[in-house]
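note to self — DONT lose this again. spent like an hour looking for the file last time. sequence + predicted structure for the chain T wanted, 254 res
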Amino acid sequence: MMKMTQSLVFAIAMVGILALGLALPAQAEIILLEDDFNDDSIDTNKWLTEETGAADVDETGNRMQFTERGYLYTKSEFDPNDYPSPGITVKGDWTMGSGTGIYAGFSFATRSDGIPIGVYRQPQNGILCDLEGYHNKIRILEYSNYDGTNGKTTLVASTDLGFTIASGDTVELTVVDDGTNVSFTVTKGVNTKTISTTSTLDNNVDHILFCNSIHVGGHVSYLDDVKISVIPEPSTIVLLLTGLLGLLVWRRRK
């Protein structure tokens, strides 16, 4: 009777684990930070800013407005090495505004400290994914302890966008960073372009930064619907279920 009961319990547990594995979605997104900027007030629990002179960041009109090269960056740090592949995903809708000309463009940066350096207000540290809207290019750069002259500034990838962005156009920008592999995707309607590279740059700072590409010219642009998330690899779930199954087998054999 005891053996029959143990066998029944074991069989039920096996069925339960199998059902759990089938029920769980292959990719369950975990949102780390999300903001639709709809209350016309910067949420200081989520964001920090760095503004000097004409460089300004302001939440207005249900979106974030950037003038020249004001910095908006996360209050919390998000180290891509802390999350399983494919790593951290950063998304946002960017609208090219007024005063464009050669100054049009926008940047996301991971692994950043949110500190602008020099008259060009380039980041001191970070992996900068940059859309040059006027030149129709996208590129990825590394900044490491940059002080305006010394330190490391390296262009690691660059390509033509392949389609145009005009004043008033909105595009979706997506950056994915797992601590080694970095990709940057620009999507406008049916048009999309992705650039990818590898970087193990680690300056022990992991804020996520948003800013215009260029520091002068009176350029104004807008950012909306920012989301920072991770998607755990399906193998993580498989390992969990395998471990549970192994434990049950071991207990049964005892």
